[in-house]
């Protein structure tokens, strides 16, 4: 050690100790969006947290997703203030009697679409999925029509009115499109092609599909397959009003802020614990309840297939506006326009 000063040795030791003491940034905090979205550090943090209330794990759906790809599928853009001008907001009387627990799948058990978990692929089309899924559920609930409607029609054809297709959009604009333009059946314009490839979403960089306005099935006419919503409205952000709307009219579309830890959700009542903000996401709210340990929750259906979460579903804490889940609730009622009815005198198109 001859020739090396004590000061230099102390400086070198401090550098080493500093490097050991400084925590390594992981995930999005590292700034490297090419890393995988599923991170063992986050899983361990959640599962070792004494008050998390939910369990994290390796969701197979995101096994090959990077952080950048995960961000891309979170397709709810911030709503411009002017977009909500003139949109009515529904409220309900506090005297409305509501059950402690509710599941739309049970109340309307004949409506198979309520319990269907879909797959948006690599397209940021959640804003469209939430609207189309809720409308088709309400066609069954209110008009006794079991139909599957086309998310692809909305994503491809709404254009700038709704936002930017696979690069995100606005839930309220999706409902306004359903009022003005309607949406065809999924059979006419499917989101999935015949060989099972996710469309759009075969590749992470798949662009918004072109609007062709032509049924894929021969002898089907595009305009004849359109189904409409009567209106587009918001629901007041009070939990009672949201519950009353779902109880009376069926599932609603909700948007909320997603953090890294949400990608790891497996079961329980979600609350944000750790990780960076990723973006906005829209899903279908189908019910509510209270967990065994006394946590009030919302019950929601996601569109990340059944390889994510609790068989495609998740619960999130209710009454605290967790991640903004109670702020942006939208819906509409199904229209009889263009629907086919069968009666004593045959079939009529209304």
TrEMBL record:
<dbReference type="GO" id="GO:0004197">
    <property type="term" value="F:cysteine-type endopeptidase activity"/>
</dbReference>
<comment type="similarity">
    <text>Belongs to the peptidase C1 family.</text>
</comment>
<keyword id="KW-0732">Signal</keyword>
<keyword id="KW-0645">Protease</keyword>
<dbReference type="InterPro" id="IPR000169">
    <property type="entry name" value="Pept_cys_AS"/>
</dbReference>
<protein>
    <recommendedName>
        <fullName>Peptidase C1A papain C-terminal domain-containing protein</fullName>
    </recommendedName>
</protein>
<keyword id="KW-1015">Disulfide bond</keyword>
<dbReference type="InterPro" id="IPR000668">
    <property type="entry name" value="Peptidase_C1A_C"/>
</dbReference>
<dbReference type="InterPro" id="IPR013128">
    <property type="entry name" value="Peptidase_C1A"/>
</dbReference>
<dbReference type="InterPro" id="IPR025660">
    <property type="entry name" value="Pept_his_AS"/>
</dbReference>
<feature type="signal peptide">
    <location>
        <begin position="1"/>
        <end position="28"/>
    </location>
</feature>
<dbReference type="GO" id="GO:0005764">
    <property type="term" value="C:lysosome"/>
</dbReference>
<dbReference type="GO" id="GO:0005615">
    <property type="term" value="C:extracellular space"/>
</dbReference>
<dbReference type="Pfam" id="PF08127">
    <property type="entry name" value="Propeptide_C1"/>
</dbReference>
<dbReference type="InterPro" id="IPR012599">
    <property type="entry name" value="Propeptide_C1A"/>
</dbReference>
<keyword id="KW-0325">Glycoprotein</keyword>
<feature type="domain" description="Peptidase C1A papain C-terminal">
    <location>
        <begin position="98"/>
        <end position="333"/>
    </location>
</feature>
<dbReference type="GO" id="GO:0051603">
    <property type="term" value="P:proteolysis involved in protein catabolic process"/>
</dbReference>
<dbReference type="InterPro" id="IPR038765">
    <property type="entry name" value="Papain-like_cys_pep_sf"/>
</dbReference>
<dbReference type="Pfam" id="PF00112">
    <property type="entry name" value="Peptidase_C1"/>
</dbReference>
<keyword id="KW-0788">Thiol protease</keyword>
<keyword id="KW-0378">Hydrolase</keyword>
């Amino acid at each position: 050690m001859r020739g090396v000063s004590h000061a230099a040795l102390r400086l070198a030791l401090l550098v080493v100790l500093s490097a050991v003491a400084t925590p390594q940034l992981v995930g999005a905090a590292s700034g490297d969006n090419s890393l995988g979205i599923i991170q063992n550090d986050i899983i361990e943090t959640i599962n070792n947290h004494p008050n998390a209330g939910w369990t994290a794990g390796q969701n197979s759906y995101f096994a090959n997703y990077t952080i950048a790809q995960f961000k891309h599928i979170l397709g709810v853009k911030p709503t411009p203030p002017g977009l909500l001008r003139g949109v009515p907001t529904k409220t309900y009387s506090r005297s409305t009697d509501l059950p402690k627990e509710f599941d739309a799948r049970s109340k309307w058990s004949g409506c198979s679409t309520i319990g269907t978990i879909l797959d948006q692929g690599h397209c940021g089309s959640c804003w469209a999925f939430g609207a189309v899924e809720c409308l088709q559920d309400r066609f069954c609930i209110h008009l006794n029509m079991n139909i599957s409607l086309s998310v692809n029609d909305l994503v491809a054809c709404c254009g700038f009115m709704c936002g930017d297709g696979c690069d995100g959009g606005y839930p309220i604009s999706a409902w306004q499109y359903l009022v003005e333009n309607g949406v065809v059946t999924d059979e006419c314009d499917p989101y999935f092609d015949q060989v099972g490839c996710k469309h759009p979403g075969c590749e992470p960089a798949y662009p918004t599909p072109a609007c062709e306005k032509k049924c894929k099935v021969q002898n089907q006419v595009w305009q004849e397959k359109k189904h409409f919503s009567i209106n587009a409205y918001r629901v007041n952000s009070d939990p009672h009003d949201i519950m009353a709307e779902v109880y009376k009219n069926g599932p609603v579309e909700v948007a909320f802020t997603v953090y890294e830890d949400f990608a790891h959700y497996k079961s329980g009542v979600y609350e944000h614990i750790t990780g960076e903000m990723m973006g906005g996401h829209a899903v279908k709210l189908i019910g509510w309840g209270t967990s065994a340990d006394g946590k009030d929750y919302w019950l929601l259906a996601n569109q990340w297939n059944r390889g994510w979460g609790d068989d495609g579903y998740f619960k999130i804490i209710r009454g605290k506006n967790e991640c903004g889940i109670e702020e942006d609730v939208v819906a509409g009622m199904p229209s009889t326009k263009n629907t086919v009815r069968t009666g004593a005198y045959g079939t009529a198109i209304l």
